[in-house]
Amino acid sequence: MIELFQQYYAYWFIVLAMLLGLYGILFKRNLVKQLIGLNMFQVAVILFYVATAVKPDGDVPVIDPEVGAVAAAYMNPLLHTLMLTAIVVSVGTMGVAFALIITIYRRYGTLDEVELLERMK
Amino acid sequence: MTEHIVVLIPLTFLLAALLAPLFGAWRDRAAYWVVLAATFVVACLSLYGLWHVAIEGAVRYTMGGWPSSVGIEYVLDPLSAFFCAVISVIAFVVLVHARKVTPRELPGKEIPYYSVVGLLLAGLSGIVVTGDIFNLFVFLEISSMSSYALVAMGDKRAPVAAFRYLILGTVGASFYLIGVAFLLFETGTLNMADMGRALPLMLDDPNVILGLALILLGLGIKMALFPLHGWLPDAYTYTASPSSALIAPMGTKIAAYGVIRIAFFVFSADYVSRQLPYADLIAWLSAAGIIFGSIMAIAQKELKRLLAYSSVAQIGYIGLGIGLANPLGLIGALLHVLNHALMKSLLFLVAANLRAKVGHSDITKLDASLRKKMPWSMFGFTIGALSMIGIPPTAGFFSTWYLALGAIDKGAWVFVAVLVVSSLLNAVYFFRVIEKIYLRSPDAVDKVEEDEQAPRRLLGTAEVGWSMLAPVLVLAVAIFVAGFLNAWIVETFLRGMVPL
């Protein structure tokens, strides 16, 4: 049990962050808090990718002439590059989401979901 | 030259999205014409591509000349060419209609609106042509983000609907991304074709099984598969009319494309239906969605909301075809992608015409005066409704027919029953509207008013202008054409797409 935790502890924290994010999305009434949950969820996914790129004693993925092109000696750069794109996507989503939140607040004067439903009628 | 079609399809839309604001700064209306011209060009390209691919087979394009194992590969095969053609042709028809509607519904916002429409179409067509599973995620998010923006540009409640759509859509995309991670670790590649070759060796691996489940869950949210459809009705109802006519026929179907591509091409029909229960699960959820969406549609008083719930039901048809995982079922699903795109855009365009001329699309207030005021729009609506119910020889009948054949082929009689019941429920909610517009006599006040305007009425001046009428009629005719030519469409194009 302890071994399982020690070996994969990064993943346990990622799963925890993911669940916290989902909790925020599902159970928080305030739209900004829902958005925080959403962002936690996205960041957890990004961390998941990055965590899997790690290799024991891996180095920065720039070929070192002394080591040579040995794949095992470097971190996996592909996952980092993919996540650069994913981060851009998540920033874009956040931008759209905040623009929506501002519009909602200007129109209804509240960000509480229950109150919002009241005022929408 | 031909291989460049693949990449020109999304890039033309992207270019139009960038050029629209620039041209808009020069002349307000120019933004519209830029996007319309781009859509026309892409429609021609994809129709040519569809023809070319049907004869000569798939076209591959490697970005920047990097081999597909390292770089990103774009592929135009029969399936993607078909979706490209549906997207661009329907988008062109809807945009022709949008010329008069957008300035009225979204005054002063036309330039950003058309730019976002360009982005949406770039995203949708990108999803379809990419041969890279991570690139699909990027395009999925481009199209989703533009959908959120388009949904938010509507009536007062639209931003709230858009926000809900955003939360659910992003969660769906994140699930998809985790699923991709699992498949990437196991196969070491992101290219769909390479992944498809590597996967058969590791089908029992729990990571692969979990990865596929997460991908299907993510795409299921985007597809509004019951019970993950919560975002859809509000989003389609509150947005501006051109957006609902653009997003409703394509948005959810693109996710269905993702499911087809990954379940049947990257994985195999045998794997998702026999080794794992995923296909059955999709079929049962879709069947529940068909019934639920139809019943909810009966309860609606507002035409756009009715159509939105009907979309939940109709995506169920496509999901059912996917879930049957046999050739006939899949042909039915693909044919329904085309038919539903025609019907749903037609019906949403008529709802837009009603809003433009009558000022609302509240079913309870419709009456028979409309038959005289807007005879052609109402004719279009009737054709669309008959096709939704599935009355031959309209297109809707034939896709339902193939789905039913697929269900019989599989011995799944429950699904045949579901399809029949759904047709009946469709008849209930569409005849409710048709009865109002043809039979319900307008009340006395309206009659007096009408008699004064009798000469005008006879001339039919209350009908909408040609730019809003022509798309409706073209789609109405297309429903019949697609119905009569269904055997040719299936034999020439769809057979080649089914990987079974």
Give a concise summary.
Chain A has helices at 2-27, 31-52, 77-108, 113-120. Chain A has 4 helices and no strands. Chain B contains 22 helices and 2 strands.
Average pLDDT of chain A: 86
In angstroms, what separates the terminal alpha carbons of chain B?
31 Å
User: Averaging pLDDT over every residue of chain B, what do you get?
Assistant: 85
Portion in beta strands of chain B:
under 5%
The ordered string of helix (H) and strand (E) elements of chain A is: HHHH
Strand order of the largest sheet of chain B: 1-2
Q: Radius of gyration of chain B in whole Å, from Cα?
A: 22 Å
Q: Which sequence of SSEs, written as H and E, runs from N to C of chain B?
A: HHEEHHHHHHHHHHHHHHHHHHHH
Q: Structural class of the secondary structure composition of chain B?
A: mainly alpha
Radius of gyration of chain A: 20 Å
Provide a count of the helices of chain A.
Answer: 4
Task: Please provide the count of β strands of chain A.
Answer: 0
Number of beta-strand segments of chain B: 2
Q: Considering DSSP H and I runs of 4 or more, what fraction of the residues of chain A is helical? A: over 70%
Strand content of chain A: under 5%
**What's the helical proportion of residues of chain B?**
over 70%
Oligomeric form: heterodimer
Span of the ends, CA to CA of chain A: 53 Å
Sheet with most strands of chain B = 2 strands, antiparallel
User: Helical stretch count of chain B?
Assistant: 22
Would you tell me the structural class of the helices and strands of chain A?
A: mainly alpha
